[in-house]
From TrEMBL:
MF GO annotations: nucleotidase activity
Organism of origin: Lentinus tigrinus ALCF2SS1-6
PANTHER family assigned: PHOSPHATE METABOLISM PROTEIN 8-RELATED
Family annotation (Pfam families): Hydrolase (PF00702)
Protein name, as recorded: Pyrimidine 5-nucleotidase
GO biological process terms on file: nucleotide catabolic process; pyrimidine nucleobase metabolic process
């Protein structure tokens, strides 16, 4: 979901994932989020171990724990969002990022538009962008609409199709996309998105689906995995996408 753009825009479009892409996993947000989601599962009456298992299963299967919860447990997704993302102490964990801000300022807007593409609800997305100090540099946000019981999320193809519809993009090859989830990147590539980059802070410990994991431990080493460019700092987008920056 997002505010649809009616007018056709011939420029290419940059889609930025938000969580663990626009800020480093070292901020500890995935850890704090994992704890809250775990507490939610336990709050549904599941024993500790069962809660961990199911949390990880839904994350792996659907790309998002909440997707499985809505599908199999008929939970109220907005209640989930309030208790999980909504209660994160983001103001303590994140701060304005001048390097990211400069990166976004240096993108040549005569060539591309810059949008966010997130599996979070819009409240969390906007909050993160505001704290990082880049909300004014993002032209649109396509988010997961938890208020719709049939909502889609990355890496479901329908989510990407909807994003293109919302931004009024007809040619997938005009899409630039960076995300810390390789599954999300691969799904976009399958749909023909032209310039996909995997943000991979290799070796950093974070939490995925409630479980601690060293980032990149399941991804082959090297600058290029199955033809997908990988970067460890968002600023490296200048190198992999030189054509969209002001010179
Ligand atoms: Mg992410």
């Amino acid at each position: 979901m997002g505010v649809p753009q009616d007018e056709k825009d011939e420029r290419c479009i940059v889609w930025l994932d938000i969580d663990n892409t626009l800020y480093s996993a070292s901020a500890g947000i995935s850890h704090a989020m994992g704890e809250r989601i775990h507490a939610y599962f336990v709050g549904m009456g599941l024993p500790d171990e069962e809660a961990s298992k199911l949390h990880h299963r839904y994350y792996s299967q659907y790309g998002l724990a909440i997707r499985g919860l809505v599908r199999h447990h008929e939970i109220d997704p907005l209640d989930f969002d309030r208790k999980c993302d909504g209660s994160l102490p983001l103001e303590e964990l994140l701060k304005p990022d001048p390097v990211l801000r400069k990166l976004l300022q240096d993108i040549d807007r005569s060539k591309v538009r810059v949008w966010a593409l997130t599996n979070a609800y819009y409240t969390h997305a906007n909050r993160v962008l505001r704290i990082l100090g880049v909300d004014d540099l993002i032209e649109g946000v396509v988010f997961c609409d938890y208020s719709d019981p049939e909502f889609n999320c990355k890496p479901e193809p329908e989510f990407y199709h909807n994003a293109m519809r919302v931004a009024n993009v007809t040619e997938p090859e005009k899409c630039y996309f960076v995300d810390d989830s390789l599954a999300n990147i691969k799904a976009a590539r399958k749909l023909g998105w032209g310039h996909c980059v995997h943000f991979c802070e290799r070796g950093l410990l974070h939490v995925e689906g409630g479980k601690p994991k060293y980032i990149g431990s399941d991804v082959k080493e090297g600058p290029d995995t199955e033809g997908i460019a990988a970067i460890t700092k968002v600023d490296e987008l200048r190198t992999v996408w030189p054509e969209i920056f002001k010179h």
